[in-house]
Amino acid sequence: xxxxxxxxxxxxxxxxxxxxxxxxxxxxxxxxxxxxxxxxxxxxxxxxxxxxxxxxxxxxxxxxxxxxxxxxxxxxxxxxxxxxxxxxxxxxxxxxxxxxxxxxxxxxxxxxxxxxxxxxxxxxxxxxxxxxxxxxxxxxxxxxxxxxxxxxxxxxxxxxxxxxxxxxxxxxxxxxxxxxxxxxxxxxxxxxxxxxxxxxxxxxxxxxxxxxxxxxxxxxxxxxxxxxxxxxxxxxxxxxxxxxxxxxxxxxxxxxxxxxxxxxxxxxxxxxxxxxxxxxxxxxxxxxxxxxxxxxxxxxxxxxxxxxxxxxxxxxxxxxxxxxxxxxxxxxxxxxxxxxxxxxxxxxxxxxxxxxxxxxxxxxxxxxxxxxxxxxxxxxxxxxxxxxxxxxxxxxxxxxxxxxxxxxxxxxxxxxxxxxxxxxxxxxxxxxxxxxxxxxxxxxxxxxxxxxxxxxxxxxxxxxxxxxxxxxxxxxxxxxxxxxxxxxx
Length: 489
What we know:
This protein has 489 residues and is an alpha+beta fold. The protein contains 14 helices and 13 strands. The longest helix has 35 residues, at 287-321.
């Protein structure tokens, strides 16, 4: 008996070392594989014997001493649980072997429900599932890429513009209910939307609007500034526009919508004034000192802009010279993440949620395009980092977290623990790795200085214009790669 048990133990060890199963892999879509697994009956029986062998020694059955209950009785009582456990164990061993034997990298989880797979009472165990895999492709030459380095001049005009913007940011919204609206003013109004062919109009109470290009309930109105300019509280204005084909309400798509806007309140942003009280509030002694601070900030900002411009040129080169299809499922999940991130970015810019919701379909469409570009670049940067043997140390991760913690006025240890629990440390590692890879490419690049002429001051963006600009970003051949945030999305 002892010899039999010893032989069984040896068999179990061999089973763990050499799991016997047949695996067939076939293409089923862009970077998608259908994997078929056949596990012979002998492997099922071995795992069953192992599971029941453990139970025989540990199960407590009324009427029997511990470890002395008949196996038949144990099978009757625990059969369903054992079968489920054996099934999961066999599948786990199969997954491990596939991971070791195949030359592709699986993305995400297998596309199947283990609960719907049954372990047969007799015969072999057969199951199949689909997975998406990491794309493979040839990299172009990474040496000698021509990169323009912009050279900016920080002159008095730029400092003056920075001062004006600083004063606007520190300004105050005041009621101007007795005055006529000007471009950039903020109002709230009761809005009625009547769509041709639709009997019941929609109404929006105290709806936020700006005297600028704006949207109402997903309909963009480019001449809204003209419509609302000069309006006063209590007055009503009307306008019309065509509902876009991407509108969330299919009945509205392509039809003409008429809007009636009755103004309830009106506010205007009054920039801060440079006086003793304001200077004391921000902690500087004079306007000249404030300008020096702003000049230093402009220099830092310019350095970042130059670096980002050079980095963007690298991305454009890579994007142009590398082509491959994206895994569909991964792309869809990534697009949803980008949409959520953009939504909260706009909220953080002070744009009311109602305004964002009005153009959510446009935002969704552009997010999908931007997500596809970002995902493509993720795969490319992974391949480049492997080729250049880029590594990220624990010290580099800790330094990045310490910097984020300082900005957010938090303790680095607390922030790191939080990010570790939420699985966001990999984002930090990936970002640092990408930045190091870009630095390496720029070291090998052909860098050419490109002096930049003084640009005209751009028109100040309203919140809605900022939202619209965000929607249109994906239409440009541009891949934005945002540093990890200390905040949870």
